[in-house]
Design goal:
Blueprint (H helix, E strand, L loop, with lengths): L1 E6 L4 H11 L4 E4 L4 H4 L7 E5 L4 H10 L7
Antiparallel strand pairs: 1-3, 2-3
InterPro entries: DUF2007, N-reg_PII-like_a/b
Pfam family, one: DUF2007
Protein name: DUF2007 domain-containing protein
Length: 71
């Protein structure tokens, strides 16, 4: 699996997951329960992972929706 997105915005992971699900791209959110450790401050980034073969098209979907990601 490859990292598609890393963000501290708690709304971004569900939004991008829904976009990917609409295109039948499986994804896995990591670090979503870290807020319990950080005290719900939102300082630890959450990550969204996709399969290696889906990374190119997933990045294209993010670009189409003007969502910034690290390449």
């Amino acid at each position: 699996m490859k990292e598609l997105l890393r963000t501290t915005d708690p709304t971004m992971i569900p939004f991008v997951s829904a976009l990917l699900a609409g295109e039948d791209i499986a994804c896995f959110a990591m670090d979503v329960h870290m807020s319990a450790l950080e005290g719900s401050l939102g300082i630890l980034p959450r990550r969204l992972m996709v399969r290696d073969q889906d990374l190119f098209i997933a990045r294209a979907i993010l670009r189409d929706h003007d969502i910034a990601f690290e390449s």
